[in-house]
UniProtKB/TrEMBL annotation, chains A, B:
Domain of life: Bacteria
GO molecular function: DNA binding; DNA-binding transcription factor activity
UniProt-recorded name of the protein: ArsR family transcriptional regulator
One Pfam family matching this protein: HTH_20
The keyword Transcription is assigned to this record: yes
Sorted UniProt keywords: DNA-binding, Transcription, Transcription regulation
Length: 111, 111
DNA sequence: ACTTACGGTAAGTTATGACTAACCGAATGC
DNA sequence: GCATTCGGTTAGTCATAACTTACCGTAAGT
């Protein structure tokens, strides 16, 4: 039996951290609307281009965006599956078997 | 015409920030399993009680938990509606009318 | 009344993360 | 070849946020 605790452990921590920052969330939303180059993204946000590059790195590490080299420029695009990870986490919060198990334990402890 | 941008603005920013911190997310998960007092929560997490108190404050401000005074102790409980706000944000990312509008603008700009 | 458990608040420290400026390599155009 | 555009990386600064210790009010127990 594989340990479900380990499987479920923190697949969305990076996603939450990535989306928590206002600038980074804005960048992500911009990319949801349309894939763009780094410079194009930088124009839509009040920070420098290197800052955008660093944010894109974090978004990429979190699986929220993809990169495709297109000549000299890198086109970033939002990844639906990235937010799916987070959605599944939210869905599993109350319905997770761990919750059921925990409640079961609680009931046992009460007697 | 009311500005939908303003209506939609940042209802989940506080939620994302609250859940982004590992300790705070752990506390929230613990409360999902079962409502607990502050001291009880503090036992499940490797930080001091005042730290837990501060985290609970943030979770409360984000609408993720509720408090009910019970004698001398404060019982905190996870709030399902709190995460619903975040889920709605995720759902609306691609289906939002703003996306459709933005794409419409893009097409217009291309001619 | 005194004591004890509970918990929020304040002040101060420390760590982390967001940002800029400067630098560098790589691909394109002349 | 040279200049230019694009973009990732580094070093360093600054702000914020997480944490602890100390303190104070409040509600219950004796």
């Amino acid at each position: 039996m594989t340990n479900r605790m380990l499987d479920t452990q923190d697949p969305c921590g990076a996603v939450l951290i990535a989306l928590a920052d206002p600038t980074r969330r804005r960048i992500f939303e911009v990319l949801v609307h349309k894939p763009r180059s780094v410079a194009a993204v930088a124009q839509t946000v009040p920070v420098s281009r290197p800052a955008v590059s660093q944010h894109l790195r974090q978004l990429s590490d979190a699986g929220l965006v993809t990169v495709t080299k297109e000549g000299t420029r890198n086109i970033y695009a939002a990844r639906r599956e990235g937010v799916e990870v987070l959605r599944r986490y939210l869905d599993g919060l109350w319905s997770d078997v761990l919750t059921a198990f925990a409640e079961h334990v609680e009931l046992k402890e009460q007697k």
